[in-house]
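Reviewers of the previous submission asked for a worked example of the structure-prediction workflow described in the proposal, so we include one complete record here. The input consisted solely of the amino acid sequence. No template or homolog information was supplied to the procedure at any stage.
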Amino acid sequence: MTKILIIGLGKIGFYHFDSLFKSKNYFQIDCVEISENRINQINNYIKKSKGNEKVRIYKSLNMIDKYYDFLIHATNSDVRLITLQKILSISKIKYCILEKNLSGSLIELKKFKHIQKRFKKCWVNTFRHESTLWQKFKKKVSVKNIFLIEFRGIEGLACNAIHNIDLIASWKKKLPLSVEITNLQKWYKSKKRKGFVDFCGEIEVIFPDNLRLLIRGYEGHQNLKCNIFEKKQKWTLLESAGMFFSKNEKITGTFEYQSVMTNKLINKIIKTGKCDLPELNWSIDCYTILLEALLKNWNQCFETSVKKISIT
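From that input alone, the workflow returned the following structure tokens.
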């Protein structure tokens, strides 16, 4: 029986849990969550729902077993490194999936480099890599023919821009030359993520072949839009409809959300030992370029010299 450890049962952690709880596969699912209220909510959900019977929820890392096939680490970024180190002092883990963002500190990012070797494989969950829709599009369209990609309506650029940057960088198999905040609207305290900050505005990413990636998210509600410009045509993404379309063509496929994706992902790794998520060391290199730009902008904006910002 496959043993899975989930750390953190907040919004994203619950999506991971729910996907595995409702799986037709028989998993042992252990969870660690420090909030008593959240534990009660999850226990009530389990009682009312049909799913895997082998579920244990702990309030302390000290209660976890000495071995797991999978670790899904879904805490906030400010405690991700220290909790991961504590887990590895107690338990041996075969495969690991870490949530983004890894950290708000360049120093901590370097420490993650030493952790990769503790697992057979370790990935970071920028989940569009595993989307059937995106996989079909990338097989159909050559990234060499693309000169501009723009995403609009991205809520929380500090939190979510890495999804877009890593997706395109991995597709090109090249890290960005530069990442710059080209139009800052404002930094703000996150309402969804208490104790963390985010910003709205625009990020420009330049790749070695001069492909430009523009990621925009401004104040006020906006629907997600993505336009991809080839030399001869423009593609538009309707993610919720599972569709890319141009003037003359249409590419369709399922866009799986996390509550579906996790079960599919775990079973893929069980069968092949592989998945399309980026491995940890690549993600560190890609995220470092973004984090350097965020720190630079923060320090210029607030006339500080901090080396860590609270983003998750």
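The first helix runs from residue 11 to 21. We consider this example representative of the routine output the project will generate in years two and three.
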